[in-house]
Each structure stands twice: as structure tokens, then as C-alpha cells.
Amino acid sequence: MITAIAGGVGAARMLRGLVSVVPAEDVTAVVNTGDDIVLHGLHISPDLDTVTYTLASAIDPVQGWGLEGETWNAMEALDRFGGQTWFRLGDRDLATHLYRTQRLSEGAGLGDVTDEIVRAWGLRLRVLPMTNERVETRVTLAADGTEVGFQEYFVGERHSVPVRSIRFHGIEQAAPAPGVLDAIAAADRVVVCPSNPIVSIGPVLAVPGILDAIAARRDDVVAISPIIAGAALKGPADRMLVELGHEPSVLGVARLYAPFASTLLIDVADEALAGAVAAEGVRPVVVPTIMRDAETSAALARAVLAAYS
Ligand code: GDP
Ligand code: CA
């Protein structure tokens, strides 16, 4: 049994590797929902969908989000009315949000709805949202102190503006979704996927009870650094670390993760920092960590498993 803490793209690639080297039914992903947004009255869960679509081999390989071969008729039609089209939703992707919203309005929990969607895609791993409650990652911009929703920062501003602070609205009232704490406690191994430490892994850890549950498993927790040679492969993780006072390197990641992870996989490009990582009390394992395709994802998954022995 492996339980993985997951954000979006980096996590999805890691999970795809894991299910190719162990039976998929032995893998549980606990996924960030702080990025969730309601648009057009629809409940959109970007990280849950990125994980599902990637594992179903249905993800758009160029964008890294959304469905491959997608069409955009609904967005074009919406433009006529001056509707909200800054957050692009493809025609087939819309069906996921329609279904999720309908089921939630019937009173189903997000965990149950996620399970229905994952099974409908024919997947055998278990995918759990971090919580069934509504938690919103909110970003205060450095320039003028205005606070915006995560997607307004990430998509609307193309994450190109400096950040002053981050908070997770609603987190105090949130509880781990059914199955989350058990999945962490019962797992043989807990994997922290290569995702943005602040806005992907951060919200999951902030749900009351989850950090303690993971820290209790520290000896069995292996994390993969999303930062390679001082940079994120994609997205704002490196800049965000700097803006919030952390070191934008595997060392910064080691300091953030030391309370709950005993081992950190760092890229071969960061071999020179292995000693500094060890000095933070985290065992470094130096391996290639860039997942370009199914084979490199599988190789990283094997390295994760080997890190336990
Ligand atoms: P998002 O929710 O889609 O923005 O994605 P995540 O939070 O899961 O991932 C963003 C982070 O994952 C970035 O910092 C990337 O550098 C990192 N990442 C993406 N792909 C890889 C990969 O193949 N290897 C490693 N080590 N990190 C990756
Ligand atoms: Ca995300």
C-alpha cells in the first residue's frame, strides 16, 4: 500500500509511474483541492482532474492539463455574451464539471463523486480529495496588497506577479475527507509527490490532522523535490519560495519537508547539495527526477521504492 500526497501535473506524472510498477489498486492519492473554483455555477477541481486525466492517458500532452483532442465550442459561444472565458474549459472537460456539480447538488460528498469519476475512466487506483469541505487558496499580491483567488493569480495573471502571502480560506473548518487519515496510517509507504510545496502540498498539510498523520509516519515518508537546479520545471514554485522567504533550491524544500519526511529524492543536477540536505536531517537520494514520458516516470517510481530499502 502506497499513499501519495499530490498536487497537479508533477504529481500526476509521479502517480502514473507508481501505477506502472505496483498494482494500481495498491495506490491511494490524496489530492489538493485548494485550487478548486466555482465558475458558471460549476465546481471545478483542477488537480483532481489533472490526476484523473493523466492516469487515464487522456490528458492534453502539450498543455499538461485538459483533455487531448479537446474542442472549445462552448467557450466560443460564451464569448458572444461576454461570459467568463479567462479560465478555459473544453467541451468534453465541461462534462466532468457538470457531472461533479450535479452530484454535489444532490448531496454527494466530493470524495464519493471523485471516486465515481475515477471509476468511470476505468482507473483502479484510489483518488481522494484532501477534504470534502470547500477550501480556497487565496493569494495576496505584493504590488498593492490585493487578495485574489488562486486561479485569478495562476491563470488570470499567468503567475507572473510577485506574491506577498498565501492563505487557505476555510481550512480551520475543514476535516480530512473520509479515508484520508486511514490511508496515511495504513500505508506501507507515504510519498510526497513533486508538486508546488506552497500551493499544492501546503494546503493538504494544512487540513487539520493531515500533517500530524504524515509526521507520525516520518520514517516511511519519501518526498521528491519539485525544484531542480534552483528552478521549477514549470510554474511559479521557485519564485514563490523566494517571495515567501524560503530558499529556492532542494535545500529550501528539505527545510520545509524535514518535519515530516525522512528522505528527499533530489535530481542529479543537485548532487552538490546532498551534504547540505543531509545536514537538515533529511536523507538525500540523488537520481534523475525529470519525468518526460512513461518510461522516465516508471524509473522515478522505481527509485522511490528503492529509497525505502
Ligand atoms: P500544478 O498543480 O499542475 O501546478 O502542479 P504541481 O503542483 O503538481 O506541480 C508543479 C511543480 O511540479 C513544479 O514545481 C514543477 O517543477 C514540478 N514538476 C513537474 N514535473 C516534474 C518532474 O517531472 N520532476 C520533478 N522533479 N518535478 C516536476
Ligand atoms: Ca494545482
Q: Give the second-level CATH assignment, the architecture of the largest domain.
A: 3-Layer(aba) Sandwich
Strand order of the largest sheet: 5-2-1-9-10-13-14
**Through-space gap between termini:** 15 Å
Oligomer: single chain
Low-confidence stretches: none
**Count of DSSP-assigned helices:** 13
Task: Describe it.
With 309 residues, the chain is an alpha/beta fold. It has two domains: 2-134 and 172-306, CofD-like domains (Rossmann fold); 136-171. The protein has 13 helices and 14 strands. It has a seven-stranded parallel sheet with strand order 5-2-1-9-10-13-14, sandwiched between helices. It binds guanosine-5'-diphosphate (GDP) and calcium ion. Calcium ion binds at residues 7-8, 35, 46-47, 200.
Structure summary:
The protein is α/β, with parallel strands linked by helices and 309 residues long. Helices cover 39% and strands 19% of the residues.
Keywords:
309 residues, alpha/beta, Rossmann fold, 13 helices, 14 strands, 39% helix, 19% strand, binds guanosine-5'-diphosphate, binds calcium ion
SSE order and pairing:
Blueprint: E1 2-6, H1 9-21, E2 27-31, E3 37-39, E4 42-44, H2 46-55, H3 73-79, H4 91-105, H5 110-120, E5 126-129, E6 136-141, E7 147-149, H6 150-156, E8 163-169, H7 180-186, E9 189-192, H8 197-206, H9 210-215, E10 221-224, E11 227-228, E12 231-232, H10 237-243, H11 250-257, E13 263-267, H12 274-279, E14 283-287, H13 294-306
Parallel strand pairs: 1-2, 1-9, 2-5, 9-10, 10-13, 13-14
Antiparallel strand pairs: 3-4, 6-7, 6-8, 11-12
Helix pairs in contact: 1-2, 1-13, 4-5
The site of calcium ion has 6 residues, from helix 2.
